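Worked example 2:
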Amino acid sequence: MDTIASFFSFITTPVSWVIVQFHSVYGEVFGPDTGWAWGLSIVSLVILIRICLIPLFVKQIKATRAMQTLQPEMKKIQERYKNDKQRQSEEMMKLYKESGTNPLSSCLPILAQSPFFFALYHVLNGIATGSTIGVINESLLNSARKAHIFGAPLAAKFTDGSSKVEALGASLTDVRVVTAIMIVLMSASQFYTQRQLMTKNVDTTVKTPFMQQQKMLMYVFPVMFAVFGINFPVGVLVYWLTTNVWTMGQQMYVIRNNPTPGSKAQAAYLERLYKHVTHHGMTRRRSEKTIVKAIVAKGRDRNEFERKFINGLTKAGLAAQADGTVIKGESQVAVQTEDGAPAAAPKRQQPKRQTKAQRQTGSSKIADETEQPTTSLSKSDDEPEDAKPAPAAKNAASKPSGGTRSKAQSGQRKGPQRPKSPSKK
């Protein structure tokens, strides 16, 4: 570790200068020799570094999501060229180049923090050994050796012996208890951060080796922090605990406001966005418009949660636009009365269904009305009773019309019957 720290000694002077500047500010409040002044100086150094690394963190998020998107294609390449490792690596590089992704982008924040971490370790190690380093002179060195955090010196380690701890003005029990608690908190924060990423911000519809790799890191990283943590000075433990808490909070904010498509975090975000949009009838913030714009642009490629969000807006009488805004849908516009009050649209009334008895009664009435002119064969009131019918009429009256009628009523066809086909002679 000393060799690695010496390798990053070129950044030791800037790191020690930043710590001294923060110490001069906090020393005026808490006293120059207190652990609060030196501990808060280290915490402020972490916050300053992480603020400068925010662009790299955003790039890490984009790279991680791009890698998740490429996992199905990468799996196909691995299966196709499983016996040819060289061709497999060439196809992988070609895929990365075409998609514009870089696997190392997800490690940028950790790699960028490494020089500051080893420089801080080198500074604290110099305090423990009593040697000046960077801009820390003799007076600052003596002040730092007197600083204790909950009874543990800044330069003390869990593995230090009682003689070395007593030389720093502390007891071995206090050092062991404080460092053990800080190591547990450091490992727990790392585990929770990785677990939060796996359970909430990963596309659950795609099962890839990348997810198995991330799941493995969820258990490996905390163990690594616990193993190496016993060899870190208290000041370095303060550094790593602070940066882990910062990472956890930063990731919680990103997952809540910019989740990965297809993840549980996206389902929760779209549910909150739906309630907000339906309540106000519009998207009010730029981030909301960006999310809605991306969902509209996907078209048929929307996932289950995005389709549910768009369908919910449609049922609420709203329509998402291509620019991310939400307007009132034309098909759901309420009818306005003359005084401006909304009026309900007239409902279409369906005719009542008649019963069987009503249908039979109606059909019998229609039959009686059609047959009435033909059956009224009674004599006219103006015709004298002794009037005799004409011979033609008499012959016509003498024909058995009642038989034809009875036959027709019995189910036979009215009118002339079709003659039978003549037999062949």
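Residues 130 and 142 are 8 Å apart (CA to CA). The chain is about 65% helix and 5% strand.
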